[in-house]
Amino acid sequence: MRDGSSLAHTQWRIGITIAQISRRWRARLDARIAEYGLTEARWLALLTLSRGGNGLTQKQLAALLSIEGPTLVRTLDWLEAEALVERRESALDRRAKTLHLTDKAGPLIHRIEGAATQVRAEIMAAIPEAELAACLAVLERILVGLAPPPDPGPKEDPDGHRPA
Predict the structure, then answer these.
(1) Tens of pLDDT along 125-158?
(2) Which DSSP state fits 56?
(3) What phi and psi, each to the nearest 5 degrees, are found at residue 112?
(4) Element containing residue 57 per DSSP (H, E)
(5) What CA–CA distances, in Å, run from 43 to 31, 77, 89, 94, 147?
(6) Where is the HTH marR-type domain (predicted)?
(7) How many CA atoms, within 13 angstroms, populate the side-chain half-sphere of residue 155?
C-alpha cells in the first residue's frame, strides 16, 4: 500500500476479499440453480419477491435488486411468460404495476431456497458459529459505513431563500 501501513493493507484485502466472495458465492449458487432453467437475474427476482411480499411495484423490486427499472422489465417479461409472476394494476397508483407470485412459482422458489441453504451450509461448514457471528457483526458495520450520506435537503439561494 502507498502508506505502507498494515492497516491500509488489511483494509484493501478486506475489500478485495468481499468482492471475490460475492462473485464466487453467486457463481456457485447460479450453477446449482441452473438446472431449473433460471438465470441469476430470474432467480434473484423470484427470491426477492418471495421475501419482500406480493404487491411490490416494479420500481420497488428494482431498488431491492439494485438495478434500473428498464433492466428488470425483460426479466419480468420472461417470468410472466412462464406464469411465475403476474403484473397487476396498483390500487394506489394507476400508473404503477404490482408484482405477484403465482401458485406455479411456489414449488420453484422452495427448490431455490433449498439450493441456497445447501450452498450456505457447504461454504460455512467448518466455521464455528461464534466466528460467523463476529464476522457478521463486522460486515454489518462495514455496510453502515457504505450507506449514502443523508440528504441535506434543499439548498438556500444566495439571498437566503429556499426553493419552493
Answers:
(1) 999 999 999 999 999 999 999 988 887 777 666 6
(2) E
(3) -65, -45
(4) strand 56-57
(5) 12, 14, 23, 28, 26
(6) 11-144
(7) 2
- What is the rounded distance in angstroms from the CA atom of residue 149 to the CA atom of residue 64? 19
What DSSP state is assigned to residue 50? H
The cell for 105 is 412459482
Which residues 6+ apart lie within 8 Å of 64 measured at CB? 48, 52, 56
* Distance (Å) of CA 109 to CA 50, 86, 121: 8, 15, 18
Q: Which long-range contacts (CB under 8 A, 24 or more apart) does 49-55 make?
A: 49/85, 49/99, 49/101, 50/101, 50/105, 50/109, 50/113, 54/98, 54/99, 54/100, 54/101, 55/98, 55/99, 55/100
Distances (CA, A) of 29 to 32, 67, 127: 5, 20, 19
Read off the pLDDT of residues 5-27 as tens digits, 9 standing for 90 and up: 899 999 999 999 999 999 999 99
pTM of this structure: 0.74
- DSSP secondary structure letter of residue 35: G
> What whole-number distance in Å separates Cα of residue 25 and Cα of residue 120?
9
Q: What is the DSSP string of 83-104?
A: TSEEEEE-SS-TT-EEEEE-TT
Query: C-alpha distances in angstroms, 14 versus 10, 17, 63, 64, 139?
Result: 6, 5, 26, 24, 10
